[in-house]
């Protein structure tokens, strides 16, 4: 059920700005909707949120020390960061959709389509 991606894509500079909070022009709303609510949107969001913390912590890996000390310097920051990126994924994506003037409910669209049959069967069997 994937949609053909013949959508107008942002330039590399626009894409970088978009990844970290800027809104794209309304002419790219179809691309934004597919990016934030289409297949793989959750994974893309977690990667985008995690990249800056990894870039900021990478210099710590240059210290000449044991792997245990390196892990104790970086993992207490990286693990919660990734955890919250995963836990708040839908909230981040819904907020970004809303910022672009799109329906925030689109975040759950794939799950709704996937579970639609199950919900109809439940309603037919037990009522609303």
TrEMBL record:
Organism for this UniProt entry: Speluncibacter jeojiensis
Keyword Transmembrane: yes
Keyword Transmembrane helix annotated: yes
TM stretches of this protein: 45-63, 69-89
Designated name of the protein: DUF5313 domain-containing protein
Keywords: Membrane, Transmembrane, Transmembrane helix
